[in-house]
Amino acid sequence: MKEHMKETEAKPALRISHIVYGRQASGNRVSYLVDPKGAGDERAVPESVVLKRWRKRQFPGHTFSGERLSSTLWRAVAKAFGTKAKAISKLSLDQIAATADKSRELLKGDGYLKLASPQTLHALFAVCGPERLQAILDKHLSDEHKGKSGIPDLFLYATSHSTGLPTIARFVEVKKPEEAVSAVQMAEIAFLNQLGLHARVLRLVERE
Is the pTM of this model over 0.85? Predict the structure, then answer.
C-alpha cells in the first residue's frame, strides 16, 4: 500500500480530472468517455483521454498541447539529430522539422524508431535544455539500457503566446485502475524527476 501511495502521488498537479466513466473493453483494448463528467459519446483509450483533457485546459496567454511518446523516442532523436545535446538544443522549429523530414527514410530503415512531431520535439528540447537532454540521451543509448525504454506515455506542455516557449511541462505515465507500473517505468520517472523535470504516474479512477 505504501508503494502504491508513492506511485500515485499527485505531483506535479495536472489540473485535469482523473475520473473516467463508461469503460468498454474490446479484447485487450479499453476505452472511456472523454468528457470528465461522463457526458457525450466521444470515447478514447486511457492515454488519449488524458491528452484530450489536457489540450482543453485554458490559461491566459497559453496554448495547451501534448503528444503520445514512442518507446523509441530518444534513440530516434539520436539517429536523426546526433548525440550532441548542446547542438540539438539550439535548433529552431524549422530546423527540427527539416531534419525530421530528411531523416524519415533513415528511421524507417530501422523499422521501429519513431520521432515525435517537430512541435513536440521543439518543446522537449527547450524544456530539457542541453545538460538534461544529454543525460537522457546518454542513458537511453547506453549498453545498460539496451532493450529497455520506460519512456512515459505522454509529454504534456503549455506554450506561452508571448515567447513561443513552453512554460509548463509534464511527463505522464497513464495507468488503468489495476494496471501495473513496471520497474523500468518507475525508474525512468524517478530519473526524470532527479534531473529536475516533472514526471509522474496518473492512475485513472473508474466510476459508474
Answer: yes
What DSSP letter does each residue of 63-90 carry, written as one string?
EEEEEEPPTTHHHHHHHHH-S-HHHHTT
**Residue type present at position 82:** G
In angstroms, the Cα distances linking 26 to 45, 46, 176, 190 are 11, 13, 15, 33
CA quadruple 163, 164, 166, 167: dihedral sign = positive
- By CB atoms closer than 10 A (0-12, 13-18, 19+), residue 85 is buried
The CA distance from 10 to 7, in Å, is: 9
Phi, psi at residue 19, to the nearest 5°?
Answer: -80, 135
- Apex CA 151: angle with CA 61 and CA 194, to 5°? 75
**For residue 154, which of 4, 80, 44 has the smallest C-alpha distance?**
44
* Phi, psi (rounded to 5 degrees) for 203: -95, 120
pLDDT at 5: 40
